[in-house]
Amino acid sequence: MSYGQVSPESTQVPTCYRHPDQISYVSCHRCGRPVCPRCQVSAPVGVQCIECVRNANRAIPSAKTEFGGTARSSAKPVVTYTLIGVNLLIYVLQWVIPNFTQQIVLVGALAYWEPWRVLTSAFAHSQGSLLHIAMNMYGVYICGVLLEPRLGRMRFGWLYFLSALGGSLGVLLLSDPYTATLGASGALSGLFLALFVVFRTNRTALRQMGIVLLLNVVMGFVVPGISWQGHLGGAVLGLAAAASIVLIPKGSQRTTLQFVLLGILSVVVTGMLYLAAVTVRFPLA
Fold first, then answer.
1. Is-contact 35 16, C-beta < 8 A?
2. DSSP code at position 219
3. What is the DSSP letter of 5?
4. Interval 41-63: pLDDT, tens
5. Could you list the residue ranges that cross the membrane (predicted)?
6. Alpha carbon distance 219, 73 (integer Å)
7. Domains delineated in the chain
8. Model-level pTM?
9. Secondary structure of 237-285 in HEC code, one letter for each residue
């Protein structure tokens, strides 16, 4: 009986498809290509190569929040904490840098030449009372932990900034152009009105928030030093932004529609801020 022989020249040693210098007798369970230990990913059955794992992950639908945002593995409201941190940092700078507060507060008569004030004023707070920043940051925290996980980070951040700009717009349109205004109250008013939209089907929550809203409205007109104009502007923009996010029905185009509406709101409020600044600009400059 004769036995066949295998020629050494015809024998091909398997090598990793990503590292040809690495010999490997282990193959990917999906594509069958040899993979070295550096390219192996453990799977319930055998191993898979890095590319197959990456392609499989792309095919998995990403988890969404209640209103279309990207769900995160961490439940921490990162944007909320960041906004609070920025407010606290600005407050420290107000104490450290001379005349810093005067450079960032909103004065309607100066907004045309110094447009940054319409946003920076929303992160500045009164140095005469720690209660001002403490109450505002507590409100941002409460609203943030309720809204951010439901809306998603980008939508929540967009809502906050639109509300802040809305507060500045209310001040420009309704306040004395020579009065200085500062504080996150406009943005906070927008977040608070957004809660009404998000929890509109929860009657118990609506009653509780309605009582708080009524008290805030009364305080805005009775207590001196509170800018009801900023509260009103922030509330209107916050309500509009929240409706643009929450009231869009689920579907493949929901995210696109949400961002289009938020973009339109952004353009509109920016245009109105410009026109208001032109109207009240300092006449002697």
1. yes
2. H
3. -
4. 887 777 888 888 888 777 655 67
5. 78-97, 129-147, 156-174, 180-199, 206-226, 232-248, 260-282
6. 40
7. 13-59 (no CATH), 78-279 (1.20.1540.10)
8. 0.77
9. HHHHHHHHHHCCCCCCCHHHHHHHHHHHHHHHHHHHHHHHHHHHCCCCC
